[in-house]
């Protein structure tokens, strides 16, 4: 597709390094800004909820900008650009129940990971305290988790890493898996690892099939919105606790939903999309 308006860049280890350097540069800028603010106004912005959101967004934006400038433009002669086109209503009807099924399956697997013991106990306590600090302000939590994270993370993990691997010649299912594994690992804890990998596989499949980055962004936002609501109103991310059912019931419903709508989406849905 040489006439495509979307650059056909590839993703290699160098691209990964560029993303990390960009992320570091972005967060460093916000850190210096905080130091300047402390020096002039005698106030530490690090403890402001909105500053965490700003620092997070700045890191992602810098990473994407670095990859665009140092990889995409230098190898393709084009600017980094993605397809954000909406799709037909039938596709939305299929992908959201499939996502819910995946979320239920992920919750069951996550519930089997220990939260007590000499290693997991201290780690889980640290993780819980960290999450509590990040969710003090519900408005900031919604903006960060439901809006910013889906946009920036989908651009990087699906739009850059997965697409770049496929453009490099990696088999699509392997590219989806690799991007999902990286997506899971960067969450930095075992209780989000499984859910993030499963989420990434569904998002990667949807992106590969529809060729639109809008759909995985919407699904990602929906997933994070559900987690935000569960944390806000039940103090946990458990559907089982919210609906007063066993985790085995959650697993059974998840398997049915995911299997059925995965089949309908991949086998029965005859609508295919191309990036032009």
N-end to C-end Cα span: 7 Å
Oligomeric state of the chains? single chain
Record field, number of beta strands: 0
Q: Low-confidence parts lasting 5 or more residues at pLDDT below 50?
A: none
Apparent shape: globular
Describe the main β-sheet briefly: none
Q: Quickly give the structural class.
A: mainly alpha
C-alpha Rg (nearest Å): 20 Å
Mean pLDDT: 91
Number of helices: 10
Percent of residues in helices comes to over 70%
What portion of the residues fall into strands of 2 or more residues?
A: under 5%
Order of helices and strands: HHHHHHHHHH
Describe this structure in words.
With 276 residues, the protein is mostly helical. 76% of the residues lie in helices and 0% in strands. It has helices at 13-41, 49-76, 89-111, 120-134, 138-168, 172-185, 190-210, 214-234, 239-243, 247-268. The longest helix is centred in the middle third of the chain and has 31 residues, at 138-168. It is globular. The mean pLDDT is 91.
């Amino acid at each position: 597709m040489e006439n495509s308006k979307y650059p056909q860049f590839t993703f290699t280890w160098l691209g990964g390094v560029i993303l990390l350097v960009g992320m570091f540069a972005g967060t460093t800028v916000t850190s210096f800004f905080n130091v300047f603010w402390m020096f002039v106004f005698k106030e530490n912005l690090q403890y402001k909820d909105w500053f965490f959101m700003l620092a997070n967004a700045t890191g992602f934006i810098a990473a994407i900008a670095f990859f665009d400038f140092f990889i995409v433009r230098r190898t393709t002669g084009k600017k980094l650009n993605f397809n954000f086109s909406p799709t037909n209503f039938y596709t939305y009807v299929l992908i959201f129940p499939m996502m819910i099924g995946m979320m239920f399956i992920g919750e069951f697997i996550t519930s089997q990971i220990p939260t007590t013991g000499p290693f997991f106990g201290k780690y889980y306590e640290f993780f819980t305290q960290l999450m509590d600090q990040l969710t003090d302000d519900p408005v900031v939590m919604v903006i960060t988790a439901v809006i910013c994270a889906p946009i920036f993370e989908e651009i990087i993990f699906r739009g850059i890493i997965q697409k770049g691997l496929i453009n490099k010649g990696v088999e699509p299912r392997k590219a989806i898996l690799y991007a999902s594994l990286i997506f899971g690992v960067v969450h930095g804890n075992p209780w989000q690892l499984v859910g993030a990998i499963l989420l990434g596989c569904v998002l990667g499949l949807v992106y590969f099939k529809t060729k639109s980055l809008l759909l995985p962004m919407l699904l990602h936002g929906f997933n994070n919105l559900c987690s935000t609501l569960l944390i806000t109103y039940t103090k946990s991310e458990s559907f089982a606790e919210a609906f007063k059912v066993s985790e085995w019931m959650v697993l059974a419903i998840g398997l049915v939903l995911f299997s059925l709508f995965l089949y309908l989406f991949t086998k029965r849905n005859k609508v295919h999309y191309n990036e032009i």
